[in-house]
Amino acid sequence: MMDLQALLYYRFNLFERRLLKKIKQTEYHFLTIPQLRIFGLMRGNVITISSLAKWLDISRQAVQKTVSSLVKHGMLKLVESPSNRSAKEIEMTEKGKKLWSEIKGIRLKMESDLSNKIGPERIALLQEILRENWG
To answer: Which of 16, 44, 84, 133 has the fewest other C-beta atoms within 10 Å?
Structure first.
């Protein structure tokens, strides 16, 4: 029997792999899970490499490498931070915004499928539990 951490990781990993499988059937077939994670954390907003590194618990260099590949694909762009000229912020390009829209649509469909399988009440309970402050 899996403990809570293993269960959470297993379900998160399953969700990501299903999302990637759907994305592979689109024009964005070249994307990887680390690249999708960046879009998931950005959620359409501007963010810094440092913030992403903290969220992902990986080095700034690893984030920079993944972001650079998305810049090369025309999905993201680096812009000067208005509050700190030496820092760069990451922004979605129009192509990136189109991808984010596609990701959101796939995620909504996946959540709807899960809701149909386990029931909307259990989805609401799961969301409530996950939003709580666990200290």
So the answer is: 133
